[in-house]
Amino acid sequence: MATALVLLGGVAAGQDKARMTEHQQRLQELFVRVASAPTDNERYLASEDAVWQLGKALEEERSERWQWDLPRSVSVLTSPDGHLRVFSWAVVRDDGEYECFGAVQFYNDHEEEYQYQMLNDKSDETLNREESVLSADSWFGAIYQDLIQTTAGDRTVYTLLGWTGVDNLTDRRVIEPVVLRQGVPQFGAPVFRRERNLRRVVIEYRDGAAVQLAYEEQTVKTVTRERVKVRGTNRYRSVEKSKEHRERMIIFDEVEPPVAGMEGLFQYYVPSGLELAYVWNDGKWEQRSGAQGRLSDKKLNKPFVPLQKNNPSYKY
Hints:
By secondary structure, this protein is an alpha+beta fold.
C-alpha cells in the first residue's frame, strides 16, 4: 500500500509539472507579444490573455512552488518565507504612456491556503498617493525589482521596490510596503519612522534621468559630539567624532527641480546629488543621513529589462 501511495504521488506531481509547463509556455508566447506586437490594441489583447492564463496557472495545486521562467520584461519576485509572490509587467502605448499589470499570490493564514488576486493599476486615479492604503483592485502600479522581507513584532512586512515609465515626460520609482491584513495583501503601511502619514514613497522625475533605487549594503557615516577635557585644565571642549560602518539599506537619489518655482512639475525633477537611505530599525524604516557610495553592479534578483518607450518592437 505504501508503494502504491508513493506511485500515485509521483503521478500527481508529474501531472502538476506538465500543466504548469504548459501554462508557462503559453505565457512566454503572450509576453513576447505584449512587448513586440505592432499596435496598442494587439499589445493590450496579449496582456489580457496573459492575465487570464496566469490566473489559470495560479489556480493549479502547488503552483506557489513553481519556479517561473518568463521573459525578462516580466518581474516575478517571491518572499523568503514563500508567503508572497508578485508578478508585474507593463503595456507601453504608442504615445509612450505605461499601464502596469500584475498578480499577487499569497498564503492566507485565515483560510490556510494559497490564494491570488490580479492587480488593477489605478495609479492615475489615486489621491494622496503617498498616504493611501490600497488593495489589489486599486493598485499603485509599478514593475517591481526587489522584495524585502522584514518583521515588526509578530507582523511581517514585505517592501517592494518598483519602477514605471509613466509617460513621455516622467518616470517613477516606488517604495511600497505590503502587509497581509486578515489574510489578504494590503498595499501601503505606516512603517516609516517619524513620517506619520507616509505609507509609500513615490519618486517622480524627468524621463530618462538616472535615478537609482536599490536595497543593498552601503556605508553609513555616523557623526557624534563628545566632551573632551582640555589637557592641563579643568575645562572641556566639544569634539566631533565620526565612524563608518556597513549596513543593509534602501538607498536612492533625492530629486528636485533645477530652479525654484518648479515644485510639483515632475518632468523637470533630476537628482540633487544627495543620496537618501532607509534602514530597518526596530520595526520601522528609518531615514538615515550620511549614506555613501554609488550602487554596485551586483544584481540582487533575476535581472529584467523594462519595456522601452516608443519602441513596441523591442526584442529580448
